[in-house]
Fold these 4 entries.
Entry 1:
Amino acid sequence: MTSSLQAGLEALTEGRAQDAIPLFKAMVAANPRDHDARYWLASAMMQGGDPEGARVLDDARTMHALSLARTMDADLQRLRTDPDYAIHIGGVLYGRGFVAIASVAWGMALSAGRMDAGTLSNYALALQHQGRVEDASDAYRAAAEVQPIATMHQFLVYAQLFCEDGEARHFAEARAWAERYLNVAPPAPHANGPRAGRKLRIGYVAPNFAKSQLRQFIAPVFENHDPEAVEVVLYTADGAADTTWPSWIEVKAIGQLSDADAAAMIREDGIDILNDCWGHTAGSRLGVFALKPAPVQTAWINFAQTTGLSQIDYVLHARTDRTPNFDGLFSEGIWPVAEVFTPFQAGAERLPPAPTPAKETGRITFGSFNHPAKLSWEAAAVWATVLRNRPGSQLVLKYRYYADPVLQRATQALFLAHGVAPDRLVFSAHSAGADYYRAFQAVDLMLDCFPCPGSTTTLEALSNGVPVLAMCGDPPNVGGFYARTLLEGVGLPELVTNDHQDFVDRALALTEDVEALDALRARVRPGFDDGPISDGAGFTRRLEAAFGEMFDRWEAAGGKSPVGQVA
């Protein structure tokens, strides 16, 4: 390592950007093709508050991506001049998990004039997977303007959640989406008869239940529904993919049906409560719900925020004695169901409990297994403060997109801007089975993202006995409230923090005494296994009772939808 580089790194880790900037500028001037020098300079400029640091970082990413593409046998000249080739290379790289390199290839296709919606949305997706969320939002908006259809616009709706002030922006975009594409005539009156003396008919809608991220959440419900009290119909894209549920649950395929035809089927089936389990993610069938095929419609499980549809009556949430007021963030009413938002089924391959790894390694290992899109600037700043004040500690960032060397290097630049040396970060890509579960045993304390927290990753950590430190906020946003209910659900309210300083103080206090941290760890898995998150039967009884009460309210209102009412 050169003396200039060493001096520059020391200056940045000590917060002396003014001393580092000239050193790194000289390195760039001496070798303009050195992308590493540009990464260092970007870190220094960002630490110093220079807005041009973002542009320098972008230059570094582009140069780095092109140098890697060359080693992968990409023809750089064709990338610049042949948009079809650039699109092809982008697809190949994206398929291998190299999202940052793919975004450069797709960006070149756009620069060459291929401004179609497909290329724009692919480019946006690759940006989003790197955590470049504002750039992704801009690209999604351009795609929605080029191809103004509901499914294209939904990418933009969902992307708002990762941006600054994301939940308010998501609400505004979801409402605009619904008004533009799903502003349909009121439905004909529903002919559902009184509930007395019959079973309640419940429908669930998602592209797939058994082979998607829904399975661990929905399985405890499907397996515990009471066939003496309810009839259940699953409406999926391909019924053949959902054959593992109890035999009395009916499965119907609607993947090849139009929204109108699917809605007609559901109405003909006499569904009393229709539940959307997918939200605004790809494959959504919210267009079916806009036609109001069931008298009561709810949204839940894959999406904690609003759908934007006035035709959906309720969003299900957790019930606590401190449920916040989310006025201005939902077009639906909020119906609290149980102590937690959903149950969750621990992975069958999880390993036996293990002690906190610092007892053996002698250092604290923090971790985050969340999607890079959730790693906000503010979360990185707070985590970096923790790392700086816990000497010798490291942070493991695990997600399949961290296989991309450009994303790794840009993430190092982000943390260096906050004074954390690159060697404090450990990147881990995709793993499965025992290797995946073993990764949890290497982490002492998980750091949850904010303002958009983890969900499956948090539950996987808790079910594997790893404590997760989260920020709820005061007052909490929707995501913070969700994170709080998870931790309270495993009996660990001390892992909920209210602001940035509280998060830092709690992380340092928890990792000050390794024996105390190990004692905390010993409480996590039993709290998960014995708490309401693992009580699928109890949750499902409460859910069925809530669905029954919703239908009774509709019936008592003379068959009118109680939109906006909150239980």
Note: The chain is about 50% helix and 10% strand.
Entry 2:
Amino acid sequence: MKQPYHSGITCIGLMLILAFGLTQCNKSTSYNKFLDPELVKIADFCDQRSTDSVLSYLNHKQPMLRIEAAYALASMRDPKSIDALHKTILDPVAEVRAAAAYALGQTLHPSSIQPLSVQLTNEGNSAAVIAMAEALGKIAGGLHASSTAPEFVEDAANALFNYERTDSLGIHAVAKAAFWMHTSGWPDTRLINKLAFVFPTQPVINRRMIAFAMSRYRGEWFNDTIQTARFFQAIELEKDTTTLTASMAVAGRSESVLAANFIIKCLQSSQPSREWTIATSRAAGKHTGVPASAIIPMLEDSRNAVAEEACFALQNKQLRPEEILEIKTRTASSPMTIQAACARMLHQHGDSLNLDTWLNTIEGNLSTYDRLACIRLLGITGKSALLSLERALNNPDILQANAYTEAFIESHSQPGFPAEVSYAQAMLSLLNHGDIGITALCAAELRKNSPATLPENEIKELNQALLATLDKLQLPREVETANEIIKTLNSWGFTPREEIKVAYNHPIDWNLVRSIPRRQRAAIHTSKGILEIELHVEDAPGSVASFVQLCREGFYNGKSFHRVVPNFVIQGGCPRGDGMGGTDYTLRSEFRLHDYSTGSVGLASSGPDTESCQWFITHMPTPHLEGRYTIFAHVTQGMSVVDRIEIGDSIKSIELLEE
């Protein structure tokens, strides 16, 4: 795990720390850097988004303050900082250069490509090299994704392709940059060719990064059988689970016979890693050369996440009648979530949904989230539309009402949708329900429809209903729903307005921050066991202070993990239980030069500076989250517990541990 940078503190800070340390029995973990008033000032300026005040610290004589200022600017992402940061990547202190490069990568501004390219060629420090290359990739990827300044994207690609450093550090830097460019959809094959060629000879840290970069590529490279053959020959010998897991995405997109045989071989092998097994199942679902018969046995895997992924994989396969019967037999006694996923998959293959059976199941003795999965299943048939609409409007359980809303929305596009049900009037009724979750679902659904597809009078009614709902929302807590409405209004061309950027509303409690040990640990007691995390108060003081305060208040006690995406995250802490809940305040995003590694703990958000009480833990490295979601902790014990967590499992309590 990458540790925060701590070398170098101001004289005042040193005196305070020494004094405090004596009273704390000289425990090095009993204080944090915010005893230094200058660091508090920088963090406060950052929290208030006061760019000019932070910029003044880039010229400070203390290197640590220059570093902190650069990271503060990375969180703020203000274009006003770009010119000053261009100068700072020439700083005599390498850590300052790395932080400044990271901040430039966060701004996604084309003017930074040229100075970063030049400095990358001359840079000798490892951390700074990687930060500069990654910043180039982020900026170029962001420009490509937004279809702006294509000439700058080409400049960045050329700089990375022609980068002469071919040692392990140079390859790692190019792989990180390529990851961001490939994530944006950049189709050029030069970088992927370069990385695939050197893949077999690289250390594991590079093989992982190359695999992630290749897994994000969407161009024509996979049609090159010579290159893909070389890659799969190397993968056959791979022992690192993370590399194998990332590489399976490459296999899924390569239509070669070699890739199909590799996937089938992996499916038939005894795979102890859940991550690799799930990735293999996903690859099998995408590759047309992998038959359903190779996937069906996975439906009986004791790991529910694996069995559910097998259901998803079978959606894309041709099924013979005997295979459909086999699937039903294998899943007859499976957990309800697997049965629901199987029913959805089989319906796509022509198997009709017995509506009465599933309605009886919904009314049976089910856990909350099993019932929600069954309710959502109703959406696969238009015949459920009227029932789903009525229950969405009248069910007092807000989670069930939202699930019925999802079912109604999906049923609208299915055969059998009742002719007597007016889609527009149904949407109006749901908008008038008043729940923020239902409103957000309806706004997102309406955005998919052009005004031309509905009568003018109904469009006007819907527009007025959206505006009326928008005026009633409570900010900042309901900003996600508000912006869903604004996106829809703007897409229709009525009453154009900017999406809401949440104003500063929750000052950092510095007395609380200073009381939190630098390596404060917390034990999260769940229904599947206990896991421990270490909080990073020095990197994310506002986020950690909020989390600690909520823990002390017992806020998280009894909350559920409402979202679990295998090979990605588990997410919990929502007071509603569906991901739409939050506190009455929002937090500022806090970013530093971290990697989203296995067990990273991040704050969920609906955009910059909208973080609140929901948090997630990553199952495996997820580099695409870096610089987008605040990391405020890492798991130190109990990743096996994280891997066992399923939707609906509970957070019993969170205990702050004493040193």
Note: Strands lie at 521-526, 529-535, 559-565, 569-572, 600-603, 615-618, 631-637, 650-657.
Entry 3:
Amino acid sequence: MDPLKQTWGISMGKMDNIKKWTDLWLKYERKDSEDNGGYCGYYQIRGFDAGRDIIGNAVKELKAGIKGMLGAEPVSVQGKELSHGIVLRKTMDDHIPGEGYRLKETGGVLTVSAADESGLLYGVFHLLRRIAMEESLKETDIRSAPDNPLRMLNHWDNMDGSIERGYSGQSFFFCRNKIIIDERITDYARMAASIGINGVVMNNVNVKDAATRLITPIYLDQVAEMAKIFSGYGIRLYISLNFAAPLELGGPESADPLEEKVIDWWREKIAEVYAAVPGLGGFLVKADSEGRPGPFTYGRSQADGANMLADLIKPYGGIIIWRCFVYNCTQDWRDRRTDRARAGYDNFITQDGDYHRNVILQIKNGPMDFQVREPVSPLLGGLKHTNQMLEVQIAQEYTGHQIDICYLIPMFKQILDFHTYCAPHDDQVARIISGKTFRNPYGGMAAVCNTGDDSNWTGNDLAAANLYGFGRLSYQTSLTAEEIAEEWIRMTFSGERQVVDTVKDILMSSWPAYEKYTSPLGIGWMVEPHSHYGPNVDGYEYSRWGTYHRADHLGIGMDRSETGTGYVRQYYPPNGDRYNDISTCPEELLLFFHHVPYTHRLSAGKTVIQHIYDSHFEGVIEVEEMITAWEGLDGKVSGRAYVNIRERLAKQLQNAREWRDQVNSYFYRKSGVPDEKGRMIY
């Protein structure tokens, strides 16, 4: 055996066939649905090659779903017209674009029409979703097509099996520097495809150690096997790339993107990768950020680094996704002019139009780092001649670690609906990232994923609503957070009205509640360093990370006005002017943009300090109400799920109380202003 393979390993091989994980929303439990029973007997394929992997998986899913929910397995009937049953049909209808489908019922025949295989698969999952929700298929006529070209999950899995910012166990991709190929990967691909995901990045953006070697023969056979599994569900596999790979893998003693010897090394390496994995989607790159190497090391621009790789990958149909998370992480807290929030825009806006057509800039939803409340990044819409992709985080790094319930889809909806004023019309983030506003060829949404090898995939059963919701929202951005929640609840728990209403109320109240008992008015960052769970008001206040609340005995907040750090002027004037003026700045972002006295009065009439006290007490009460509501479902949801969520809620209440008491005590001691309501503050 190759000594490197002995050192790094190649594959864990097939695991046992005993399933140790749930099926999440693909449970396919029996439904009492007389309306839908007439379609379960027969199916027919027209125009598609039934031997193709995606078509085979679509038919397999159709059979499994109908057998589980309606009690019969459809039989294939070819060569004649069906009087009743399901037809899977290829169409050249101009109104059904790639990955889109039409679901139509006529005279007892239910037809799923699609222009391509992925569209057909999505149409089958839509059909099964309707059955799972016990909605009648009679006279159905639905057209659906994805709003975003790319709908991706970014895994931060390390090859030793750990997951950076993972709260659901260990990786199911890697263990002890080996790639895992087993039935769980197939189930994961099924679940991702069922919500419209078409891209998965398998490894952490912070590429180190064995992960650097994913692009070498040590691992490429297993990467190819993984890519084949995903391609059978319409999903392209991507790899996070170490920009310094030439130095670490025995190539040139440089990673300068403009040096010929470096370019030649990458040309050979990319050719080697695509020879082994021809369907690879491309590479995700984090460069010049938080200690990661990049083109700045050599005096080159971010565009120089991205374009070098993009040109080499272009012949293979691959793309380069380049993260815009580039900032100075060695900031001096004494320096009040340097502002981390400015960094993304300052580093990328001047190169708008310099990036090649197969480069996508992946932009975090806010200018900082996935806080419970941030303004929308000004790069979204600031860039007009560059492919843009929105990055959000469903791993709850700063929003409760999948212990505390925090349904994030309402936040994502606000981001997608945000008007940037980048154009007279079509200026919403949803349209910009789709490529439609500026007619860019690539774009979409990516989420830092929240899955691990826990039996329920996401640690807290309710955290799976964020995984489901991201996929559905990235495919169809017009869906509301309430619609998505109802779908997920009906498919996961039950269609019983009490269950649906109770769980939906808990989900929809969870983000506001979390915000209330953690960070007031957009300030953020008052968390325990490193772990990012639980309160530590000054935990980052004197650090190098540029994450400050600037509280003193008179007031609190970061001054990002035009007389402060000037960050507000990165926005187009309507937004910049609104944020700059303390009287028009949205109050939920007040302390992000302004340093204000504790006595500053909000629109409701209360002072900032009283709002801090009130919101933290209210947040705890709302968690107590969630617990009471959940306890009312004892016996109405599965015992395993009931216990899992009840235990998490108990921990959430402890956390909320700690936040309340530490934050309120801190600001009482800082300001000397008592609570008007005389409640206990320590």
Note: The radius of gyration is 26 Å.
Entry 4:
Amino acid sequence: MSWEIILESKMVENLGWTLLNSIWQIGVISLGLFLLLALTRRSSPNLRYALSVSALFLAFLAPVFTFVSRAQESTTRDFAKERSQTQIADARRDLAGGYESSVAVPRSDHSSNANIQISFGDLLSLSKYFPEILRIVVGLWLFGVALYSLRLFSGFWRVHKYRTFEIEPPSEVWAETFDGLCRKLKVHQTVRFLRSNFIETPIAVGVLKPLIILPAGLFLQVDPRELETIIAHELIHIRRHDQIVNMIQSVIEVVLFYHPCTWWISAQIRHEREFAADAAVLEVFENSRVVYASALANLEEIRQSAKDIPPSIVTAANGGNLMLRIRKILQKNTEISNAISAWPAGLAFLLIPAILTGVFLLDTSTFVNARNTTDERKIAIGFVSIPPVDRSVNPPQDSVATARILVDKLQAFKIPAIGFVEGSMISDGEKPYPVRAEIVKMWRDEGFEIGVGGYKHIGFYDTPFDEYTDNTEKNLDVLKPILAEKSITPRYYSYPYLNTGKTDADHQRFEAWLQDHGLRSVKYTIDNNEWMYSYAYDMARNDNDLNLMKEIRLEFMDYMTKMFTHYEAYSQEMFGRDIPQTMVLTPSRLVADSANDLFGMIKKRGYSFVAMDEAQSDGAYKTPESFAGNSGISWFERWTLAQGKKLLEEPQVDNGVQKIWQDKKVLPVANPKKKGS
């Protein structure tokens, strides 16, 4: 069949008239939806979602019905015309006795009127062009459908890449959390949960085999409590079968692409779908409106910086109008009981959207970090030992570069860190090592506090008391000339390996010795095995294994995120609040290279960075403890043991990192059984 026959066919004419009629039909349907949404503005999002979906389906069915009706009418007219022509031919044969050409059959009045109508129509400038106009309309529509179909199929291809490219299972902890959420939300389908190094925003894909994919970086960028709400949002989309509706919606958008009201109705569906999912999340996570709103704000910040935006055929937690969604989420928080006057509620309702609007217009990150002031979390960081340990192929110059990077990052995040000097790293006891001593001076000159460790990094458990105090005093002798240049007196002492001796009596005796020398010890609440990750990272750097370095950084951040969750649980269980934390780190290249992620994660958990004085002035640090043993543990664990309670299960170091530590260990360690730094 040639194109000319197709273009001249009745189907093209019927399709053209269908498209023209759909203009007013879809307009009327959208107007009806507008009125219904206005009437139900205080109703549940599910009702408004159902109305919007119904309107889109009706907008699609109306042209289909029109096309079928015109096709039937055309068939009826063609049949009647053919029958009439047959009857006329038979009449001619009867009158002429078989000589059809010699007899003229009078034309009916109907035919005459048709001629009159045609003649009158010729006077109208457009009527004779209608067939050609209809063919152009259909041609343009087919061209548009082809273009939007290509866009739709490209979306399917991108989803295929999301499902197969650079994906991996999440950590065991998150896998268990995900299974728990599935049970909690009563999701009966089998849903796979993966993390990806390819995508930049969380998505839910698939109809028969649903899949939730989260960016690997999201596990580090977002507070675990917030991340749970994001995952729950995606699971709710799957439970509601929103992917099926979204798929049909995308197809209808292709067919009715030409009508602006189609896109308006479709936008209402996406808005109400997200509102409905948000409402379901808040039903599950009671009293978590601020947490969930903060999670969405974080996603908006990520979406604004993302280079790849997922296609519309996937559902995502950061879909719809984020600003409007956050306002609706927080709206319930402004509802106050009748016992309280109404004007504070009204004021709060007005201020919250206004503040959020300003935040989104000026800087989304402001809202992300707003919890710093609301939750009042604080943290002080101590580094042991400075200068950095040399594990590079080019010591000590590599230590200088590492220290410089670290100092710059601490200044960028405005962290009043304290560094504890290990004297044997900067002097032989008589003469200083110039390059390493300059690192300590750089730390001092940049305004960071300097504390005292041991001259050698030795554990108290394996060292007699007098030898231990001599080791500390020797370190003071090495350090004092450097501090005296700026009239600085050291104030803090950090126990090597966090080991405080064989007995509590030794511990208390040494504490008295410190007090006599104008020093007080640091009580670290957040201990960790960062030093093991740092060792593995240094080995990867020496081998110039960039891929392994990247993997170690990711595993390190995942581990540190879990450790914060772990020790925050101690704080809540023991004190019923977030006490100011103190964390121990080493000034390693791993910490320096991961500073943006590490300190950024800490800020997003609601912490502000404070000096050691401010953190340890909290009354919690006066909690009694009497731990003595060969290991070094955090003060949360010491306080827990002193109260006769069971320790919480601690997150484990990545197996690959442990293997590197075990297989490639080359540096002597005074106390290999030690957990902390």
Note: The chain has three domains: 3-100+116-148, 159-368, 373-663.
